[in-house]
Design brief:
Two copies of one chain form a homodimer. By secondary structure, chain A is an alpha/beta fold. Helix content of chain A is 39%, strand content 19%. In chain A, strands 3-2-4-1-5-6-7 form a seven-stranded parallel sheet, with helices on both faces.
Chain lengths: 214, 214
């Protein structure tokens, strides 16, 4: 009985996600669903990426959080169209939340829409929101055991951005182990190493993402 | 209709949690539910805490993970009774999982049972498992904006352990802001600063926890 309810919820979500995707395609905007644990640096990566694209791409952002508007204020400060979603307790964004949020964005004015999901390595991976691609961010300070402990997110993502590499010398983390185990779960995963603090590696990531935007 | 289903699930969970708690009380074991984001250092804190209690307290551990047995192997290596729960996708432990796991532990031989929840700052805070106290671990590398973005966990916890303080000098994180905002959500929250890498602050935390164990 419980499974039936869950199945129905997932089917309804997938249907709305497909509608969102059609809507995004028609507007000519490429959409990424950015997921990570809390505090891995999603908003910092978005800030860095936006700066790389100044004068090149028109970017919009949807911020997903349980509560608060701190992230939207950070992004809005860069002069970028931004919508804040507060899930009010829910641990992930779903397609319906995005469907309601996009009425606040003029999509035809955008080339790239970045959806920042709720900080959570589990449930966001299960819910499509209408994205072209899922991107996962992992801070190296979270440890090298994450891929095998949270496999679904590594399997569902097209790209893995490893952040905070400036802190690597002060930890015991084996970045080679992260990469090896991530690729064992998802052999086509594209992996980037960056520091949103120093800017290292941001150029390579931004260039790759730009190559996907139509 | 959806809310009804959720309410029924929560009621069933609370009922089983109360049974677990009665069972723990009768066995004379104090139980903590340890929660954090992925990679904050829950297993490292447990390792450090166990070492502090050698010859003082008899400790058992239940490890909750989506997948894998790496944490249970780490704890088992210390000669401590340990049970691994694999939730198979679920993003939190619930009372029923604990109810099933404890048949594998001889509780009368324990003074303290540490339940390591799935790494997630959201859902674990909603599900009682039969614990005497919830403890939250936050790595300072996750940033100083976490309390206002994930308020429920800070409100539900009796203690907040701030880990990885050895990395503070290499970040822009304001630990004063973390403490101030945590206390604004939960004025009675007991806060500890530790480094599971260097051992700093572990003694104070372990002494306080031991004072609660009957």
């Amino acid at each position: 009985m419980k499974i039936k309810v869950v199945t129905r919820i997932m089917e309804a979500n997938d249907r709305i996600a497909a509608e969102n995707k059609k809507f995004f395609n028609e507007a000519g905007v490429y959409v990424i669903n950015l997921m990570s644990a809390p505090g891995a640096g999603k908003t910092s990566l978005i800030e860095r990426t936006i700066k790389e694209y100044q004068g090149k791409l028109r970017v919009g952002v949807i911020e997903g959080d349980i509560a608060g508007t701190e992230d939207a204020q950070r992004i809005g400060g860069l002069g970028i169209p931004v919508i804040q979603i507060n899930t009010g307790g829910a641990c992930h964004l779903d397609a319906n939340m995005i469907n309601e949020a996009i009425v606040g964005l003029y999509l035809k004015d955008l080339d790239l829409l970045i959806i920042e999901n709720v900080g959570n390595l589990v449930c966001p991976a299960e819910f499509k929101v209408g994205e072209d691609m899922k991107v996962m961010l992992l801070s190296v300070t979270e440890g090298d055991d994450k891929p095998l402990k949270y496999p679904l997110m590594f399997q569902e993502s097209s790209a893995l951005v490893l952040n905070k590499i400036d802190l690597l010398p002060y930890t015991n983390v084996d970045i080679g182990k992260i990469k090896k185990n991530s690729l064992s779960l998802n052999p086509t995963l594209k992996i980037f190493e960056v520091s949103c603090k120093t800017g290292e590696g941001i150029g390579e990531w931004a260039e790759w993402l730009q190559s996907l935007v139509r």
